[in-house]
Amino acid sequence: MAVGKKDIECPPYAEGTPLSDEDIKSGKVTYVEDHPDIRYSWTAGQAISRFLNGLKEGKILGVKCNKCGRIMVPPRMFCELCFKPIDDWVELKDTGTVQTFSISYIDPDARPLPEPIIVAVIAIDGASPNMGIMHILDEVKPEDVYIGMKVKAVWKSEEEREGAITDIKYWKPLEG
Amino acid sequence: MEVEKISGLKFHKKQDVAIVGAGMTTFKRRLNETGRELSYMAVKQALEEAGMTLDDIEMVVMGSAPDTFDGLHMKGEYLLDGSGGSDRPYMRVFVGGGTGVFAPIAGYWHVASGLADICLVVCEEKMSSSYPHPQSAFKYIWDPILDRPLNPNLIWIFALEMRRYMHVHDIKHEDIALVSVKNKANALDHPCAQVAGKITVEDVLNSEPMALPVRRLDVSPPSDGAAALIMVAPHIARQVTDNPVWVTGVGWALDTTWWTNRDLYFPRYVAEAAKMAYRMAHITDPRKEIDVAEPYDPFDYKELHHMEGLGLAKKGEAPILTREGVTARDGDLPTCPSGGLLGVGNPIAATMGVKACELYWQLAYRAGKRQVAKEVTTGVCQAWGDLMQVGTVMVMSNKR
Amino acid sequence: MVAVVGVGYSGFDANTPDLSWKEIMYEAALRAYTDAGINPRRDVDSFVTCAEDIYEGFAIFDEFVPDQLGAVVKPTCTVCADFLYGIATAYMQIRSGLADIVAVEAHSKASDIQTFGNVVKFAMDPIWLRNVGNAHPYYLAALEMFQYMGERCLSEEDVARVVVKNKNNALLNASAPYAANVTLDDVMASPKLFDPMKKMEIAPLADGCVVFVLASEEVAKELTDTPVWVKGVGWWSETYGYDTASFSAMYAYKAAKMAYKMAGITNPVKEVDFAEVDDRFAFKEMQHIEALQLAGKFEVARLMAEGYFDRDGALPVNVSGGNLGVGNLLEATGGQKALEVVLQLRGEAGKRQLSDVKVGVAQAWRYLPANSGAVAVFGV
């Protein structure tokens, strides 16, 4: 072993060849494109299937664990803290409290959105504290949103609902 | 049969573990080299520093984050050749963004268990292959049924967490921005830095909004890069160096997938991981016993958040320490002296180069211009990942 | 020493439309913890999942792991490899003193993948190999098979006999969805999808999950009177380049060598009682038997024809039915192998129970287009 140490004064020394977007556009870089066709059809499973069917009926469903007493949403088949099956299904309210929020200026590909959107974690009324879901807020100005704000779900019409999280169009302030 | 409490970590390791060499490539938004070539460069440097050749390496651990960046399924297999893993036991570990410190933890158990005496740890990330933007790949980290239909961007979760943290402790954005200012300035001394610079708090607050409260300069950039580390048993360390750095504690923890069910103001996953690592390293008062820290700083608030999780500051106290200069390179608790992810760049797993590798260089007194002013014995590095879930912590010391 | 103190599984089925992968994992984990007599929330120190992102359809699958294993806010990680790599990881964690009890999990929800061929293709070098031709990537295995048959002077019947043995073995395994009472003529009549590879020589996909609980010697003795010991583990990677691979399963040979050394096995033919090897393509079983040194280079076909590897043979291989009978379980493949070995060693294999077995070997390959794999030796 020990074939002789190289004395590196202040490691590391920088290696690598940076490229600019321009280098790619002007064809200075050799590259290969691929657009893979990879598709999945995830089984929603028992708990989430029932939750989605609830949404279709305009209801938010939660589950209860009798051991720790938590009422949980989104629903799950088992309580992850007690590691036992859940005991009951509970219908929750379609109102809640803003736990935290953000005003997003970018889309999933980091491109600018035409209009910023407000996203929030909303603790659902009727569930245990902090039991929230992520969703969109609307019918409110970004500067008027605050943590602790009470909000209500705005549903799609019954015929438009398909059993998806987007059956709730967005949430709006409960008052005003 | 039901048994009463039987377990409890005992830390009966077979042998101690030392770090004797490290290396990393430059971190840039887009590099011409492939992932394999980047891995090769980092490994070459680490071997040079340790005075070894690839023939000396017994086992290889690979750390690399989502396959979707590189556009490759089984990315670990693809990176085999460049990382020196060919014709050896080679294993890839993966805990999302926490991989940068988790890969050396895996290296630790390869050596501590006695299965290997010399283990090479390599981390690689090539985010630029993903088109139109690396964030496109992050679409697939969300729950496909409950989250993806809302068209989320990765930045959202950080913005939501940052807002909650600011709200609970009543912290101003100005105080958080100081972290970005500090780290980008520290990075001026790092030869591999991507976005080093002298900026002001105003620059951060006036930068382009991404998902408020997060603005452009609150965020580390996506990068390409690789890093490598050589971990050895004590009898090997004695042969190759006079100043090895010992791994004295490791810890990791993964919180629930249901991140919207947690109060995001405090990273309890980091606290749990730190508890494990400190117990192993016999550290009872981290604020006093840790001389230098490299917490994970993909966002400026994250450094503060993680300092509190690591017990280096009380809850809500990290911004105050930052404002008072305690975390500066010449302060009492130098934090991210490398320049961190905010200054050097954020090639997810390869950030091992500014976390574990940097801590090694600091404790071996080899960090040159980046060397912290105070005398150092013990340091901690940490990474974080998944849906605000994983904490990975490693404690090192230059005294065995 | 490290022992297996609990095993649990869910499946194995051709598809699982009623349960999500989370629910499959929960089911298997609950059974394993019950088998071990432990409470995961209290007793398990570390959890290891073996998963590949693109098999799951996620960018960071690790996120979705902790809840259903009882691992919330506990040391939990993902190893991007087969279940047997997970066993190796648990082994190292226990030997390093980081944990006394480790849970290892791997699963397949292959039925969620709509374009499996493209997934495999996605693992090929994007510049060098991925876009060569439009064929289903199984052709890679066929190329290797053709070369291997030439080098070992194998006939098509020699390879077909593997299918006959395994599918018939699977008839005694209630968890083997592809069990069938087939004859050599049936297999020979099966259409050639990738000449010389026949349709029946390719293991179809299946769903399922395997969870093991491993413990240190001290704890294992508290938990059970009949532990199964992990005598040795080995894992090895040959090369990524398809063009530089040995085509003779060097990965399995080297991994086995490492595992045998740890287990103190010097003469595998004599010291190993039975084996479960990767047979996701029928010829792979022959290659792997040879790599595990359970038969000489040119003997495998002859011994196979003589019934040496049958359930009542001298050295039974794939008594469970192997992948040809149970299905391709992706990263859980090694899990199904290890499970069968443990069940046999415990004497819990039901109708297919082998008599007087003390040492068994499980082996898995990382599947196309990789040249890596792992081996574990279990014993009582």
Verbal overview:
The complex is a heterotrimer of chains A (176), B (400) and C (380). Chain A is 10% helix and 34% strand. With 176 residues, chain A is mainly beta. Chain A has one domain. Chain A has a five-stranded antiparallel beta sheet with strand order 8-7-6-9-10, with no helix packed on it. Chain A has a three-stranded antiparallel beta sheet with strand order 2-1-5. A two-stranded antiparallel ribbon of chain A has the order 3-4. In chain A, a hairpin with a 6-residue loop joins strand 1 (60-64) and strand 2. The longest helix of chain A is centred in the first third of the chain and has 12 residues, at 45-56. Chain A is extended and about 65 Å long. In chain A, 34% of the residues are buried. Chain B has a domain at 18-132 and 222-240: Thiolase/Chalcone synthase (Peroxisomal Thiolase, Chain A, domain 1). Chain B is built from 15 helices and eleven strands. Chain B has helices at 35-50, 67-70, 75-78, 99-112, 134-138, 155-169, 173-186, 201-206, 234-240, 268-281, 286-289, 300-309, 318-323, 340-344, 356-363; strands at 18-24, 59-63, 90-94, 118-126, 209-212, 214-215, 224-232, 245-254, 292-294, 378-385, 390-397. Chain B is globular and about 50 Å long. Residues 1-8 of chain B have low confidence and may be disordered. Chain C is built from 16 helices and eleven strands. The model of chain C has no long low-confidence stretch (mean pLDDT 94). By secondary structure, chain C is α/β, with parallel strands linked by helices. Chain C has one domain (2-114, 204-379): 3-Layer(aba) Sandwich (Peroxisomal Thiolase, Chain A, domain 1). In chain C, the strands form two sheets. A nine-stranded mixed beta sheet of chain C has the order 3-2-4-7-1-8-11-10-9. In chain C, strands 5-6 form a two-stranded antiparallel sheet. The longest helix of chain C is centred in the first third of the chain and has 16 residues, at 21-36. In chain C, 68% of the residues are buried. In chain C, helix 8 packs across helix 13 and helix 8 crosses helix 14 (300-306).
